[in-house]
From TrEMBL:
Keywords: ATP-binding, Nucleotide-binding. This is Sigma 54-interacting transcriptional regulator. Residues 210-275 form the PAS domain. It comes from the Bacteria. It comes from Clostridium aromativorans. InterPro entries: AAA+_ATPase (IPR003593), AAA_lid_NorR (IPR058031), P-loop_NTPase (IPR027417), PAS (IPR000014), PAS-like_dom_sf (IPR035965), Sigma_54_int (IPR002078), Sigma_54_int_dom_ATP-bd_1 (IPR025662), Sigma_54_int_dom_ATP-bd_2 (IPR025943). Residues 339-564 form the Sigma-54 factor interaction domain. The keyword Cell wall biogenesis/degradation does not apply. PROSITE patterns: PAS, SIGMA54_INTERACT_1, SIGMA54_INTERACT_2, SIGMA54_INTERACT_4. Transmembrane segments: none annotated.
């Protein structure tokens, strides 16, 4: 005799949806009667073998009308994968309102979405009867809603909620119909829903029953699962196992597991209750990872679960996990459209770079400072087949050798004093399937050059303090403004590494070789910065014929400088390089020697030293001594990328050159008269430097 189930909900659409789900899974083995909470037919005695209610609130309202012998299930809801993807596509940081049948259900659904992993948007529950103005708001709708949605900015309809697998199992168990779910319908019915991970391992560990409930759960998993009885005979398997290794009822059920996998020690698993750790084997041309786990309760072996995974699937999951670890930080922002200029030479180099993007070979980009080397590197990545994977950048000159090694290779827990608990993946690992961008490669220490060469040759890394090799699939793009060939002859750069890095060399032209682009670039950068001034013809000619040692970066600096002047027309005399001051006029002979040596040592860090000297000068005038921690906090506030350790090293350099005095303890640092002279000179001539 068919079982009878009564479904009670808020409205027809939701109840119909649940009814269709249940009918699809249990076929014709039960009959369904539908009730709606606001209709009169719900206020009579409801006779059914099982009553499914949409919420606890509904249960309280209909409880007086329920047959005492009826079994009750409160719906555990979820959403479809299509609906989930619609929410995931909402822009990060958005605020959306979710409309559901009641306050209870709306809050419950918001909690479910957060639990399913939706973290990038703020979701506020909404329900009928709440007085909210939705004008201009983004709304998530579950099918139809009784709420007024007029004036909403955007409506994202994710479809009606669905019954989660837990609810289906509860229905099957309470009606003794679980055996009906032992077919392919359960997998097909749940391929399109998003379900919470409720811990299959916990279910296996807590029960000795290998009955219907476990079979249903196994059909939902993507991994191949084979159930073995205590004698080593195969008694069940899921669709994943059938897809991966091609087993079926005719050649698998009742067969000894050792016949299917003759080279694996299953006798150790069955006799000694010993797990079989992951083994890489080949089946039907696939690389497959297999493991076996005894199921034991009170010292008694009840069977073994064999788990089979395609190696390619494991790699895809590893990438997803890596993406979660790195978040959205490692992404290339620029494309070839962001590389400005219409001269023939820049068009030529963009064309060459586009062709390089189609290859997986290592690229070495060289050129003077400010020519756009990183811009080209990001554009190449975004035009390559790796564009959907990480673009991981590291500046080889910005950090010490030991820190650079740990950043590149990662480390295991306890590898050194201060190592983070649980260890840390290196940048090689994080760049898996993507691009590793090595900025200022010419500054990499020789010791690390040797290790980098090995990674390029073997495509595998070992963490500091680790013992296992980790396979990595990365593309290397390196940049430098140094002459690596000269460094090779001087013994400062490895010749074999150079040829590994420069499979595809790209030497970018300086701005003085593309003078046709100077004024168009000037105007485009002005537009991007939203500034408004004009150049006289003489000033324009002077810019075109300037030597541009700082290239595009120098050009942008000039535009910011002209903006700070606050005048509408820039003439020849307003150009800094036209009326530069000579440092000889402000320094005595001894100061001149010290300053020249200091200037040659600080190289590209002029702006950072200007920042430190400016803050120390301001502190001196305000009778406030500044320490490195205070300077670090100010740098962060001003978006100047300086670590506390870098500030410490720079302060020592300034004191060595008599520009500041570092007081011990909490005395802070004080700028000297010579330091004030240096600061004034650097400010006046920063464009030239």
């Amino acid at each position: 005799m068919n079982k009878k189930i009564a479904i009670i909900g808020y409205g027809k659409d939701a109840v119909d949806t649940y009814g269709k789900q249940i009918t699809a899974l249990f076929s014709n083995n039960l009959s369904i009667e539908k009730f709606y909470i606001d209709e009169p037919n719900v206020r009579k005695v409801i006779n059914a073998d099982l009553i499914l209610v949409q919420s606890y609130y509904i249960l309280r309202k209909v409880k007086p009308y329920l047959n005492l012998e009826s079994k009750i299930v409160i719906a555990n809801r979820t959403i479809s994968k299509t609906g989930f993807n619609k929410i995931m596509n909402i822009p990060k940081g958005s605020h959306v309102w979710l409309l559901d049948e009641s306050m209870e259900m709306s809050i419950e659904m918001v909690c479910l979405l957060y639990e399913l992993g939706i973290r990038h948007v703020e979701i506020t529950p909404m329900y009928p009867g709440i007085d909210r103005d939705v004008s201009g708001k983004n709304l998530i709708l579950l099918g139809k809603s009784a709420c007024n949605t007029k004036g909403a900015k955007q409506i994202i309809n994710i479809g009606h909620s669905l019954l989660d697998i837990i609810t289906i199992l509860d229905i099957g168990e309470k009606l003794n119909l679980l055996y009906i779910l032992q077919n392919q319908n359960i997998r097909m019915g749940y391929k399109e829903i998003v379900s919470k991970n409720f811990g299959l391992s916990y279910v296996i560990g807590q029960t000795n029953r290998f009955g219907s409930e476990l079979k249903v759960l196994l059909q939902v998993l993507d991994d191949g699962i084979i159930g073995i009885d205590p004698e080593g005979k195969i008694y069940t398997y899921n669709e994943g196992a059938e897809e991966i290794i091609g087993i079926n009822k005719n050649n698998a059920l009742g067969k000894d597991i050792a016949e299917l996998f003759p080279n694996l020690p299953f006798d150790m698993v069955l006799k000694n209750i010993h797990p079989l750790t992951e083994r890489l084997i080949k089946i039907n041309g696939y690389d497959v990872v297999l493991s076996a786990h005894p199921l034991v309760n009170s010292g008694i072996l009840y069977g073994v679960v064999v788990i089979i995974k395609k190696f390619n699937d494991i790699e895809k999951k590893q990438y997803r996990f890596r993406a979660q670890i790195i978040g959205q930080g490692y992404r290339a922002k620029y494309t070839f459209d962001d590389i400005l200029g219409e001269s023939e030479i820049i068009k030529k180099y963009k064309k060459i770079a586009r062709r390089m993007a189609d290859s997986d070979s290592s690229i070495l980009i060289t050129g003077e400072s400010g020519t756009g080397k990183e811009l080209f590197a990001q554009a190449i990545h975004n035009s390559s087949s790796r564009k959907n994977y990480p673009f991981v950048a590291v500046n080889c000159a910005a950090i010490t050798e030991s820190l650079l090694e740990s950043e590149l290779f990662g480390y295991e827990e306890g590898a050194f004093t201060g190592a983070r608990k649980g260890g840390k993946p290196g940048l090689f690992e994080l760049a898996h399937k993507g691009t590793l961008f090595l900025d200022e490669i010419g500054e990499m220490p020789l010791n690390l050059q040797t290790k980098l060469l090995r990674v390029l040759q073997e495509r595998e890394v070992m963490r500091i303090g680790g013992s296992g090799l980790i396979k990595v699939d990365i593309r290397i793009i390196s940049v430098t403004n140094r002459n690596l060939r000269n460094m090779i002859s001087q013994g400062k750069f490895r010749k074999d590494l150079y040829y590994r890095l420069s499979v595809l060399p790209l030497n970018l032209p300086p701005l003085r070789d593309r003078r046709d682009d100077i004024i168009p670039l000037f105007n485009e950068i002005k537009s991007q910065l939203n500034v408004n001034f004009t150049l006289t013809k003489s000033a324009e000619n002077a810019l075109i014929h300037h030597n541009w040692n700082g290239n595009v970066r120098e050009l942008k600096n000039y535009i910011e400088y002209f903006t700070s002047l606050g005048i509408k027309t820039i003439d020849l005399e307003d150009l800094p390089f036209y009326r530069e001051k000579s440092h000889k006029s402000i320094f005595n002979s001894n100061e001149e020697i010290i300053f020249k040596k200091f200037l040659s040592e600080i190289d590209k860090d002029v702006e950072k030293y200007i920042f430190l000297l400016s803050e120390l000068d301001r502190g001196y005038k305000n009778k406030k001594r500044m320490g490195r921690r205070s300077l670090y906090k100010i740098a962060r506030q001003k978006n100047i990328f300086l670590s506390e350790q870098e500030i410490r090293v720079m302060l020592i350099e300034l004191e060595k050159n008599l520009m500041i005095k570092i007081n011990r303890g909490r005395g802070g640092s004080v700028i000297t008269n010579f330091g004030e002279k240096v600061l004034n000179y650097l400010k006046d001539n920063s464009m030239k430097l």
